[in-house]
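Annex B. Sample input.
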Amino acid sequence: MEESILVGVVDSRASQRAVEWAARRAEERLSRVELISVVGGAIGAVGEGNVVAEAIGLTRALLAREAERVRAHGVKADIRVARGNPVEELIDASMVFDLLVIGSDFQGSDTESRRGPHGIRVAAGAHCPVVVVPDIDLSGRRGVVVGVDGSSISRKLIDFAAAEAAITGDPLTVVNAWVTVPLPLNMSAYPADYLRGMQKLTEDALAESLAAIPRLHPQLEVRRVVERGYAEVIINRLASDARLAVIGSHGRGAIARFLLGSTSQAIVSRPSTVTVIVR
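Annex B, continued. Sample output.
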C-alpha cells in the first residue's frame, strides 16, 4: 500500500531539511508527498486583503520551489495553501495521511529552539505519526532508538521502530528507563535489593514487550538498554548517534490527545535526531 506523507512547510532551513527528509523517504518507499503551508485567517483589519493576497502568492511560490526539489527525487508532489491557525490546519490535514513531517529549528545540545510550542502542539494533536526533523546534519548516522515504558502503547512503538530498522538494515536499540520512588525525606541511599528489584522488574517487562520481534524480524539486530534515570536524558543520549528515534505521545481522550507526556515533550523540544511521535 502506498504511503502518504504530509509536510508542513515554512520559509526556513529547518523546513528545507524536513522536505528533503520526506523526499528521500518517498523515493525509497514509493510514497506520495503533499506540501502544505498555512496563511493566517482574516481578522478584518484595514488593508488586510492586500497583505493576505501577497502572502498567498509568496507562499505558493515557496511551495512550488520545494515541490520541484521533491520531484527531483522522482516523487509525485502536490501543494496546498491553507488558511487559518497553522496548528489546527496541520492537525486537521493529518487525518488522511500516514505521516506528518515538520521541521525543528533546534540545532544541537548547545542551542535553544526559537519557534515556541507550535511543533509540540502539532505532535500532540495530529491524527497520524509526526516526524520532527531537527536542523542538524545527520550524515553517516545509523540505528533506530525507541523508548518504551511498559504502557499499552509500548508494543506499538516497538512494532513501528522494528519495521523501520528492518527496512533500512539498521540496528534497533530499545530503551526502558526507571526511577526510584520519590520520598519526602532525606534518605542517603536506597537499599541495594530495592534497586536490583527495580532493574530486574524493568528488564522482565522489556523482554516481554520484545517477545515477538525475533519471529517478525529474524535478521534484526536488537540491543536492550535498561537504565536508572530520566527517560528523556537516556533516549536523547543514545539517539545522538542514531538515524531515527521513536517515542510515544501518550495522548488519550478528548483533552489528553492534545497533550504530550512530559518525556515526549522534553525530547521533541530538543531532539537529538529525526524523531517520530507515535500515538
